[in-house]
Amino acid sequence: MHARSLLPLLLLAACLRSGGGTHAPEPGADTAAKRAAPTIDGAWMRSFVEAFAADDMGGRFTLDPASIERAAGVVADQYAAMGLAKVGDDYRVPFEFAYGNTVERAHHVWVEAKGPARALPPEQSATLSAAEETTVVADVVFAGPRATAKPPATVRDRIVLVRDPLAAGAAAPADNADLRALAERLAAQKAKALVVMGDRVPGADTSAWPLPVLALRAPAVESIAAAAGTDLAKLSAEKNTAALPGVRLSLAPRRTDKLERAVNVLAWIPGTDAKSEIVILGAHYDHIGTTERGLMCRGPEGDTICNGADDNASGTGMVLAMAKAMHAAGYRPRRTIVFAHFAGEELGLHGSKALANHLPAAAPFAGGKIVAMINFDMVGRLGKDGLWVGAVSTSSAWMPLLAEIGTEGVPTVFERSVTARSDHAAFFEHDIPVLFFFTGLHGDYHRPGDESAAVNFDGMTKIGTIALKLAAALGDGAAIPFTQPSEEEGIVTRLPGSDAKTIEKAPAPAP
Ligand SMILES: [Zn+2]
Q1: Domain with 462 in it: what CATH number?
Q2: Does pTM top 0.85 for this prediction?
Q3: Tens-place pLDDT, residues 101-125
Q4: Distance 40 CA to ligand 1 centre (A)
Q5: 382-399 burial, b if ≥16 CB within 10 A, otherwise e?
Q6: Residue 510, CB half-sphere, CA atoms under 13 Å: how many?
Q7: pLDDT tens-digit profile of 214-249?
Q8: What domain range includes position 113?
Q9: How far is the CA of 259 from the centre of ligand 1 (A)?
């Protein structure tokens, strides 16, 4: 499960070529009808989750090569043992994605006042945020503390100059949270940019800020004030806003995206008479790493490894267990079934976006069409609140099909809304019907306590059984047309079950 809400859509995920032919096994003489129905092996799923979420796996952080490559290898080895088909010549399908950015120092500030524009010395400015490399040219207004707390309409279309809210020696927080909040207030009033007087340096993850933010050192601000016939002391005494007449600033922030590389792990069972129709069973296999090397893995437990047993060894194990069940039963679906394990989910759904946005030019994707995607993210903590099945609004056929399959006695909430917070979202963006299986957030979410000991393996077996029946129904060709959800249903940042308005069906409350 991805922690933040809507992500910057600046992603430059690119599928790398996967060459070579695919050697899918030929259909055998047996038909599915002659074979035993596929069944989920709960004991195997348990042993997989325990091993995959063990401390020695190191938290499976996408940007920690030793840990993530090992995890990808563990998953790929399972498919190799089954002999399932590869995409191209490897189960590992690499992709690139933009993550974080290196922001150049902004030697791109010009002051325009009574005469030609002059550039400020580069060492006097730093770009803190720059969503785009757009040049902003506008009049300047100074905002004092009252105006920064509640920006007036007069900041509209202006570059707003402020004293650093953390002035007087306070240490700047690494994430610039205070400035971000101010930038949001100013953006709501349609200001063009924020210029902070001070010594801030670019913080982490500032690419999605609502407007450009620059820091200018005191001498640069002095020269701007002087150009307007005032000085810094006078401006600093201002509680509300003060115009800087005759002064325009031209800001040209620059950013350079940093490309990272990771692999999805993909395997597939070819369909028979409807093989160009692809059903994806997917789960992310990455997590957030450790306190030393990871993404906000922290907790008071004294444990430094975020194991991600629920998030998402559980979904990884469930997708693998479905593949094993189908393989062991010799199940031959009419449609092609792809088992997809995504990296980069915790950093912003990068693996699923890479696949959904750039289908590999190899079988089964070349000439194929994805007709449905089922996502399993955090399916290991089945508790009294039951199972959530999200995104049922994405096909008018989902509810009747799910009703036919049943819930194995698991209390299940069917949710119409499509949350943006996990991998199905990347496929939904392409008008593909999706479902999201999820057992809810908990106190160990993104903390070292998300360990196998707390996983409900009986619950996983039941959910896996429901999912396997669903996958087989889709594999057998159940019609599943895409339906466009209403505005309030998709795509949303909230999680399934959090708004009664979009619940399609819920169990009757216990008496
Ligand atoms: Zn997560």
Answers
A1: 3.40.630.10
A2: no
A3: 655 544 467 888 777 777 877 777 7
A4: 25
A5: beeebbbbbbbbbbebbb
A6: 4
A7: 888 888 888 888 888 898 888 888 899 998 988 888
A8: 105-253
A9: 21
